[in-house]
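hey so i finally got around to running the thing on that chain from the lab meeting. sorry it took forever, my laptop kept dying and i had to restart like 3 times. anyway pasting the input first so we r on the same page abt which one it is
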Amino acid sequence: MVLRKCAPAVVCLAVLLFAIQLATATQTFHVNEAKIKVLLDDTQSRVSLELDNATGTSFDASFQIELLDPNDAVRATATIRESVGRGRSTVVVPALLPYSELREAERREFPWYRLRYRVTPDAAVGSPAVVEGVVSISEVTPDLFEMRVVSAKYVRPGALYSARVRTANPATQRAVRDVAVEAELKFDDGTRPVTLKARGVTGADGYVKLDFTLPRKIVDDGEGELKVTARRGGIEQKAETEVSSNLKPRALLTTDKTLYQPGQVLHARALVFDGSERALPDAEVILKIEDEEGTSVFISKLKTSRFGVASADWQIPANARLGQYLVGLKSEDGDWYTQGQPTQSVKISRYDLPNFAVTTKADRAFYLGGQNAEVEVRADYLFGQPVKRGHVRVVRQTERSWNYKEQKYETEESAPVEGELDAGGRFVARLDLAGEHKELSDSSWKRFDDLEYAAYVTDPTTNRTEERRFSLRLTREPIHVYVNGGRYTQAAGLPLTFYVSTSYADGKPAECEVSVVEEGLKRLVHRPELPASEVKDPNRTLLKLRTNSYGVAKVVGPVVSRDGGRGNLSLHF
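ok and heres what got predicted. didnt touch it at all, straight out
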């Protein structure tokens, strides 16, 4: 009876002892890769390894460290022997490749180096197995960083000039803090070179702002230099940029509007600043207006107010020629202002109130190959009645420009379609688009083409002509498919991610089904005693998707094969 009660206890004790032995066997020796550190100094670089020895005994071991470049070449190696105590300990392996001896090109590649370690315990009873591994240099080098500097190109006298510096890990772009940054700004004040200095330390976000208080006197058009140096541990990064003391005055010229008729008044206003962005008072300026042929039609000498403002009015002659005019501002020495917005383009054109309005309406929103257009032209007086028996002429305009010398529009037009308005003021123009469809189909890149037309209606009672310009869209396909957000390069083994947009040829969203098809690979096939021939694999449908009511769908996939053997993946939709 006693033995029966003790039997379960004996079994439990055996299981417990076995579990303890198993735990002891698994609690062996390893290197904590998360705590590996590469320490870069001016003379050498060192590797700190954190060891966890759970074997319960001390032993001697050989530590070998290798530095591998992106081509797997061993750039440096170091081997030491150390005694490994029980529990947690740290071993430092010195005498790796000094970071300071690397060339500039090698330093740029250094974040992509890898560290290979191997710990070989001495052969003895109960010694653990060999421990080895590979870690990325960018992950185990806390001092590694790259520097970026953002600063203004121009300096202003008496102003505060700032440079913003950011330090980050070159591989992960995580911010690197506690980087000492020094900057030096050099330029000329007219009598001697001036050197300003600033320094700071990057914060937790990796940023530091360096400020320079500039003197009030700086040489105009002088060139300066900004040098920034960042240091942490044995790593030093430098950056240089040029700054300019462009102190030319700046002018802002505006007009009350951009379109005028002959006989109206053009109001122009200028605001002038000096090189330090302060209003320039009592400055003598010249306001000049030129036509398209460069002829001066208006000149006015002005003086700015104490607020830097100057203004002038030009009474446009009733017989002024129609076209574009340039309003500009010159300094007192006759040179045009080049900084800011010192010119303004205006247009002088006549506007006569029409007696009737012309409207057009096409029978389709777009036209596919083989389809011709029927366009309804309608003319109505402003009081609502239709224009009867008016002459209609519809032409395609390939070019339309204003001839300033001849004072008329010059157009290149196709053969017109002519007719007369019916009693309801309507006329249907039937346009043959066969030639235009052929031009579109011969194009290797155009999906659609917008043809520009003009409809001219002449009222027989007044002999007055009004026009309406309109466009017709020709397209190859009724639905257009666009891919947006896709990357031009894709890592093998990862899914493609992009958006698909579908719309009708007139731009309206199209809710439809889209098939993503991979084009078959072309390859050479060699047969015995026969010349090599090119064979194309069949196309393969990768997936099907459906766009929403806005014509948009997100695509995640397909996965680019790692062993596909092709550098480019051609997809059709």
